[in-house]
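Subject: Sanity check before I submit

Could someone independently write out the structure tokens for this chain? I want to compare against mine line by line before I put it in a report. The sequence has 200 residues.
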Amino acid sequence: MVARSDTPTARASSTDQRSFFTVGDTKDDVLRVMGQPSQLHDDYWVYGMSMITFEGGVVKEWTNTSSNLKAKLIVKPGANKGYFTVGDTKDDVLRVMGQPSQFHDDYWVYGMSMITFEGGVVKEWTNTSSNLKAKLLSSTKATRAFFTVGDTKETVLNVMGQPSQFHDDYWVYGMSMITFEGGVVKEWTDTSSNLKARAQ
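---
Independent answer below. Compare away.
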């Protein structure tokens, strides 16, 4: 008996020879690489504690909690500058950081650290595991040893160096936090007694 050409076993696929799956692959592609899931639902499959989410029948994102998924993001060729920063593309991050443990359209997870994207570029990050090769860039040099209310983010960066968490409206240094409004310092909480802040 000849197999029908539309059955998964007979149909040729671009991933037939691949040992991994990626974004946009079909459920058949995932099945070939991963085998049978422990839980099967229409829009997500579970392997141990890991989960693959589908949209329109193709891979959208995954969470590799059990470190058992043979998932890989494919990076376009380009230069690796050794760090990533705000506005960098997902390819820039992938070149620097390698494969994330969790891949979602608007955020990637590396250990306990997270990078958030908006419009396909880096918006902010939380470096909880101290493993992110993230860097904020400054175009000026520090002119004083402290910052205060009304100072720019660039001034804070020059005084304090790289934050452990970078968000548009607040930065974290250890357990301390600086809040910004309109791009300038609004207030701070110096829980770790490490902020070089001064009220004026």
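---
OP: Matches mine. For the report I'm noting this point. The first helix runs from residue 27 to 34.
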